[in-house]
Amino acid sequence: MAMIKCPECGRDISSKAVSCPGCGTPISPRSPSQLFKSPGTAAVLSFLIPGLGQIYNGQIGVGIFAGALTIVMYLACLMFLSFDIPNYGGLIFGILGVFMHIFCISDAYKTATKMNESANAAPVVERVVPAVEQHPIDATIQEYESWKQSQGK
Ligand SMILES: [Zn+2]
User: Fold this and answer.
1) Distance 121 CA to ligand 1 centre (A)
2) What is the dihedral of CA 112, 19, 17, 140, to 10 degrees?
């Protein structure tokens, strides 16, 4: 079990505790700053390097796959453009590459937005605190664990 420092009194407490046993300061089980994904940042990252926004969102597999596919399309486009014989390969793969690139950007934006919405929907400190005040800390941790299981985590 990981230990963290209470922001108020500095005492070492369990990272699973919902409040400090020493001073009663509520501890968020999941810090909002850790959960928050900036949709703008995700979109810009996928614009700079296709798939990077997905990796920023934690979708590493999707990011590598979609990013690699986009880059392969661009490389195929350049390859066809380099041929001496006129052909439509450059145009076709160029359009496919741009299409994949736009998908990476908009998907990164939408996914980050969705992640923030689901993070905000879960009760964090506010709804957990009253139980902390009524029960001993161990009972509160058990309640939090069963709540977490009921959330399907
Ligand atoms: Zn404390």
Assistant:
1) 27
2) -110
**What is the distance in A from the centroid of ligand 1 to the CA of 6?**
5
**pTM of the entire structure?**
0.57
What is the whole-number distance in angstroms between the Cα of residue 42 and the centre of ligand 1? 35
Is 69 in contact with 100 (CB distance < 8 Å)? yes
Per-residue pLDDT of the chain (153 residues; tens, 9 = 90+): 678 888 889 888 887 778 888 898 887 655 555 568 899 999 999 999 999 999 999 999 999 999 999 999 999 999 999 998 889 999 999 999 999 999 999 999 999 999 888 766 655 554 455 555 555 566 677 777 888 888 775
> What are the helix (H) ranges across the chain?
32-35, 39-48, 52-56, 60-82, 89-121, 129-134, 137-150
Do 57 and 111 form a contact (C-beta atoms < 8 A)?
A: yes
133 alpha carbon – ligand 1 mean position (Å) = 14
What is the pairing mode between strands 12-14 and 3-5?
Answer: antiparallel
